[in-house]
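Fig. S4 source data, part A: sequence.
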Amino acid sequence: MAAPVAASAARAVRWAARAAAAGPLLLGPARLPQSCAPRAAALPARWSGSRSALGSILGIPAEKPAGALGQHPPSVATSKEEQDRLLRHQPDQPQNPKVLRIAIIGAPNAGKSTLSNQLLGRKVFPVSQKVHTTRCKARGVVTYEDTQLIILDTPGLTSPFKAKRHKLDEAMLTDPWDSMKHADLVLVLVDVSDHWTRNCLSKEVLKCLSRFPQIPSVLVLNKVDLLKKKFILLELITELTEGIVNGKKLEVRSAFKHNSSSSAKSPLQITQAFPPENRAHEPRCLQETDQAQEGSSLDSNGDMRASESSLVTEEAQGPKRCGPRDLKNMKGWPCFQEIFMLAALRGEEVDTLKRYLLMQAKPGPWEFHSGVLTSQSPQEICDNIIREKILEYLPLEVPYGVIQVTEMWEEGPSGELLIMQNLLVPRKSHMMMLIGKGGKVISRIAQEAGQDLMNVFLCDVHLKLKVEVKS
């Protein structure tokens, strides 16, 4: 075991300067208020960070950012044997280990792999604007102090018809369900920038949640940075949760009054019902938020003025227990415990979600050694990253027919990784598209994929790609 560890340490030293210059992948500063940290598990669903989209709407003052989490994740071994030894190695258990298994589900292209990469701090899962970039379930491992998060990155939930259309394996249909069986918590990711699908959860997601109602679920609204009208987020919350979060009713109402001559649309505010006797026991940060709302004001040419807001004190009528229900008329899921809003691609509010996940971990033994970042083999990571680039540069259904064959994988004389891969396509026209005029397309794919692989393995990578028509 000493030899692989020494090799990894040598690679890390060689890449220390480059990694420091490039900066961490996690771009979003942590914004969990210190006053709320001990009671984060009791936070209401509307809380989602002081500088999140919802926080901006409600006028919550921004706290000083805490230190970012997971800034120096381990690299992935360049050889399959070394990676296998790490996976088989007995985990280095801390004194009081904690663990949390997280399944991330959602419609295709919702940003599941992007969020997984941001949580890990290094790109090990493929990301593309095309659907079904992730072809099989894979696990990522976040180790922070005495806590280990195991992220179950899954393919997007899809129907058998769409799976056949994109020539997907049967595992694409079963992997998300298998991941749910082993999860302690599920994140449901929704792309709020897609106005065609954002107003309701897909039937596949609702089926999955209904089948495993005992697993705590959290709603994550992604790509909020792409929304121009932020008040839409509040409308989406009520639709995607059926107006109930953590067993309590949510009410969305106009926060401002305007006179008849004003054509401005009233902004919205969200409140959560608490019984009167529980008002004194609300988390401190919630009470401060309510006070900030009640004292807020806006004056725009005299057209608008703030109205007083008050919390509803009726007992929430939400379901006491979530079980299988008739999904035909359901648009949302009334059993979410929390709601988070973030922009995974830019890293905004990812650390806020990460801190929440770390606090949800339960006492239990680690499943992986602290030096493990992913359960994937180096070759699987390479194949996925190259396929990601192919999906980006080829149109329509063409990239789904490309077959990848690795012909060379070895270490060079100076410690660099030498990779040669053959790309087999069904038609000559596809080969011409993949090569591009003057070889520009295939060269760009090799260059971009090689750079991503360098950041995964923390060593120099020389990647060569060939294109042939398969016989």
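Fig. S4 source data, part B ends here. DSSP finds 14 helices and 15 strands in the chain.
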